[in-house]
Amino acid sequence: MEIKFIKGDITRQKVDAIVNAANSSLMGGGGVDGAIHRAGGPKILEECEEIVNKIGRLPTGQAVITTAGKMPSKYVIHTVGPIYKNIEHRTQSTELRNCYINSLKLASEKGLKSIAFPSISTGAFRYPLEEAAPIAIQAVKDFLTKEASIKEVYFVLFNNATYEAYVNAA
Ligand code: APR
């Protein structure tokens, strides 16, 4: 089992699943969410609409799966990170951890072997990088210790500051 840190664009990763830092509507947005829907094409949004019709808005910390449209990965796992607030630290760190754990669970249930994460919640949702990076890495480590089905986990980090925060935390 390996955890790798890469500086780059998650939409270009050839892995079984890439993870999208979505919002509860699953209807797209800016940041990595916008990049994934642009690169994957309209099929992803159609599948998201079907999911929302069935289960309603996706709660924070939960994850669902669609195909990846035109991207080189096979699936997109959509999860919703917490919007950072200066209060209730424990709740939001648990929610952030749940994003990683629930995405990995879903990948594992599908029999997937490789998965790539962006830095969930640290863009538009303003979670401080120095707090988010250790939560993300610890969640992945804890999951991999218990479940051996997933062999490769990538953190695909979009800029220098994010990459450095994760490497330092690791
Ligand atoms: N590949 C990898 N990482 C990316 C990419 C990309 N192509 N594009 C952006 N990022 C990075 C950002 O630099 C940031 O480090 O993803 C990280 C998460 O930032 P956001 O995409 O803003 O995600 P988040 O903070 O979780 O906010 C979610 O933003 O637009 C939306 O619909 C989305 O409302 C939701 C909110």
Detail the topology: elements first, then pairings.
Elements: E1 2-7, E2 17-22, H1 31-40, H2 42-55, E3 63-67, E4 75-80, H3 89-109, E5 114-117, H4 129-146, E6 152-157, H5 160-169
Parallel strand pairs: 1-6, 2-4, 2-5, 5-6
Antiparallel strand pairs: 3-4
Summary tags:
43% helix, binds adenosine-5-diphosphoribose, 6-stranded mixed β-sheet, 170 residues, alpha/beta
Overview of the structural elements:
The protein is of the alpha/beta class and 170 residues long. Strand 5, helix 4 and strand 6 form a beta-alpha-beta unit. Helix 3 crosses helix 4. The protein contains five helices and six strands. The model has no long low-confidence stretch (mean pLDDT 97). The two termini are 15 Å apart. Strands 1-6-5-2-4-3 form a six-stranded mixed beta sheet, with helices on both faces. The longest helix has 21 residues.
Bound molecules: adenosine-5-diphosphoribose
Distance between the termini: 15 Å
Helix content: 40-55%
Widest beta sheet: strand line-up: 1-6-5-2-4-3
Instruction: Output the helix-strand order.
Output: EEHHEEHEHEH
Q: How large, in whole angstroms, is the Cα Rg?
A: 14 Å
The number of helical runs is: 5
Quick overview of this protein structure:
This protein has helices at 31-40, 42-55, 89-109, 129-146, 160-169, and strands at 2-7, 17-22, 63-67, 75-80, 114-117, 152-157. It is an alpha/beta fold.
